[in-house]
Amino acid sequence: MSVLDIRIIGDPVLRQKSKEIDIVDEKLLKLASDMIETMHNANGLGLAANQVGIPLRLIVLNLKDIGVGKKDIVLINPEVVYSEGSSIEEEGCLSIPGLYTELERPYYVEVEAQELKLPKGKLRNVRIKGEDLYARALLHEIDHINGILFVDRLDDIKRRIVLAKWKREHPEYS
Ligand code: CO
After folding, report:
1. Is 141 a catalytic residue?
2. 104, 141, 169, 172: the active-site residue
């Protein structure tokens, strides 16, 4: 396994709508396990493949830190099929390091996907029901593969303010 470079806001790959995955091969298994290592190395709750430069519909989530499981989950072609409620919590993103701001999202979601089991690459269809932080993490990562960053979901004025402040505080990323 290896730690991959995480792409930062401004990189066009973060704006790409990622492609459906129809073949699970060795290369994809390697990408998934590298993403897991990269997520843990950065202390993240989740990571999407385009954050490491690969525009495929693949996300990983750290279920232990989210508080809903013992380990990590790898999802292929995840799709939100239902959402309900509302919650406002602070959110951040490994592609905008150091920017945390409150964002409203649904409190509960249901997501259909194929779960990829490592290391062998066994696949199974799943319908995940997530609430609170788990719902937020699923929605955040699925947004990524659709080319959406969490700051895009803020209203215009708030987005401009928090991004301007972040850029001032983090000249190293511009
Ligand atoms: Co993110």
Report:
1. yes
2. 141
